[in-house]
Specification:
The chain is mainly alpha-helical. Helices cover 88% and strands 0% of the residues.
């Protein structure tokens, strides 16, 4: 294995470093997304019941015990349940933007690895072929396969390694993007459900006030 890296030239080590960076980012983000995921239906049912009982303290406690961005969005909305709809929406949107930025952490680096690895492999191919043609130019005798082996090895190894790193990095990036988008959608659904619950409670309150005024 070490011999292959040596034959591949300096760029092989850059590609290997890029692969280690990509793998580390994927593992960190995958674990982070897994820990941030919650059962949205159960979560909303729990805090919804608390809010309808006017027990906002318990609803906030549930949010604090739950991990991930959805709980932060819910907590923000519940803390402002007595504000106007526009104020709640503005606060929720601000928190959602912050949480989405946290979800996107290091993903651009993984995308860069997926994009640059095949380019580094292509550069290694060009350098290897240049070496091979330089050998042909320098030799004043009949060229053998052994004379060209060094440049061809470098060209093939860097190309292969570049693709071997880029393909899983690209798949990993899209997988993480899918998980991120799921969490973003959950935040949006959570905010929408809470706004509907607040609106429902407000309608019931006004109805009760209207019934009392009639009497």
């Amino acid at each position: 294995m070490i011999g292959i890296f040596v034959k591949g030239g300096m760029l092989v080590w850059f590609i290997l470093f890029a692969s280690l960076v990509g793998a580390a980012i994927f593992l960190e983000r995958y674990i982070f997304f897994h820990r941030s995921q919650i059962a949205l239906a159960d979560f909303m049912k729990g805090i919804g019941n608390c809010i309808r009982r006017n027990n906002h303290v318990e609803a906030i406690a549930i949010c604090e015990d739950a991990p991930g961005p959805v709980a932060q969005v819910a907590k923000t909305a519940i803390l402002r349940h007595d504000r106007s709809r526009s104020e709640i929406q503005e606060a929720v949107e601000a928190v959602a933007i912050q949480e989405e930025r946290a979800l996107e952490k290091n993903l651009p680096i993984l995308w860069t690895v997926a994009q640059t690895a095949p380019l580094m492999g292509l550069l290694g191919t060009v350098i290897g072929m240049m070496r091979a043609f330089h050998t042909i130019q320098q030799q004043q005798k009949l060229i053998t396969a052994t004379d060209l082996a060094g440049g061809v090895w470098e060209a093939l190894i860097t190309t292969g390694m570049g693709l071997a790193v880029a393909i899983p990095a690209y798949v990993a990036y899209n997988l993480l993007q899918s998980r991120k988008n799921e969490l973003v959608r959950d935040m949006e659904l959570c905010a929408t459900d809470l706004m509907n619950i607040f609106a429902e409670i407000e309608r019931e309150r006004r109805k009760d006030e209207f019934d009392l005024s009639d009497h």
